[in-house]
Amino acid sequence: MKQFIECMPCYLTQVISALKLTDIDEKKQCEIVKEVSKIYSDINPEKTPAENSTLFLLEAYKHMGQPDPFKEAKKQSNRFALAFFKDMEKRVLKSDDPLFTSIKLAVAGNIIDMGINPDYDLDNSIDRALKEGFVRNDYDKFRKYLEKADRVLILGDNSGEIVFDKLMVRQLKNYCPNIVYAVKGGPILNDATMEDALEVGMDKEAEVIDTGTNYIGVVLDKCSDTFLRYFHSADLIIGKGQGNYESLEGTKEAGDRTFFMLRAKCHQVARHLGVELMDAVFCQNTVE
């Protein structure tokens, strides 16, 4: 997904979200925003919003002197989500289709995104996900790929949300025991890293790897050789969240074996998907 003109102010909005989590005084924050704003003259409009946003954030982190301003917020999100886990698993196991229910709940967890929507309502997202389901729904196509898959690669998104992904992983293993879960190779916004995966016990459910980079989404030319081997050999790929959608949709590398699970949390992503703001989507990648 190429950037829209409306994406440009959001790059600074995410920088400001990070700054507000620090104890840096407002004068210094303004100076950092001015310095980071200089990147506007260098960004490539042909790149994805995920990639361009990363450039702004990494420059901001450098000036802040804090490589992970969301560190404590991520821990809080993980603890908060873990408090829901047992109840959510009961709902999954009692449902008519536990796999589909676990997928809906994994997308409900996608609301935990302090970079885009710091005032999320998880209870409402859970209720909405279970009642309304997906506006775009390629579950039947997904099942056909899953039934033939020897390896499933999940591209994780946020901290907190990773807890809900455990529900989905447990159900996926009933169809394919070889599940690999990929996290970021370093901190960026509140995206899940290896530290988060270990904290919530994802390593007990799946093989956990990292992308080898802290770029938002999956920017293949920034990823490690190890990650790329897993990516290219996977029979089925699940891309969680907007960053993975922005960076991989429409690409031949992702192919039609890739399915995106997300809630459209900004107008531009919603427009690109052909849905309304905050709609839940479970769609197969389309390569033209």
Question: What secondary-structure arrangement, pairings included, does this model have?
Answer:
Blueprint: H1 7-19, H2 26-37, H3 49-64, H4 71-94, H5 98-108, H6 122-132, E1 136-137, H7 139-148, E2 152-155, H8 161-172, E3 179-183, H9 194-200, E4 207-210, H10 225-233, E5 236-240, H11 241-248, E6 258-263, H12 267-273, E7 280-284
Parallel strand pairs: 1-7, 2-3, 2-5, 3-4, 5-6
Antiparallel strand pairs: 6-7
Helix pairs in contact: 1-2, 1-3, 2-3, 4-5, 4-8, 5-6, 5-8
Please characterize this protein's 3D structure.
- This protein has 288 residues and is of the alpha/beta class.
- It has 2 domains: 7-64, Helicase, Ruva Protein, domain 3, CATH 1.10.8; 71-284, 3-Layer(aba) Sandwich (Rossmann fold).
- Helices cover 49% and strands 11% of the residues.
- It contains 12 helices and 7 strands.
- It has helices at 7-19, 26-37, 49-64, 71-94, 98-108, 122-132, 139-148, 161-172, 194-200, 225-233, 241-248, 267-273, and strands at 136-137, 152-155, 179-183, 207-210, 236-240, 258-263, 280-284.
- A 7-stranded mixed beta sheet has the order 1-7-6-5-2-3-4, sandwiched between helices.
- Helix 5 runs antiparallel to helix 6 (122-132).
- The two termini are 13 Å apart.
- Residues 114-118 have low confidence and may be disordered.
Give a short summary of the structure.
The chain is α/β, with parallel strands linked by helices. It is built from twelve helices and seven strands. Helix content is 49%, strand content 11%.
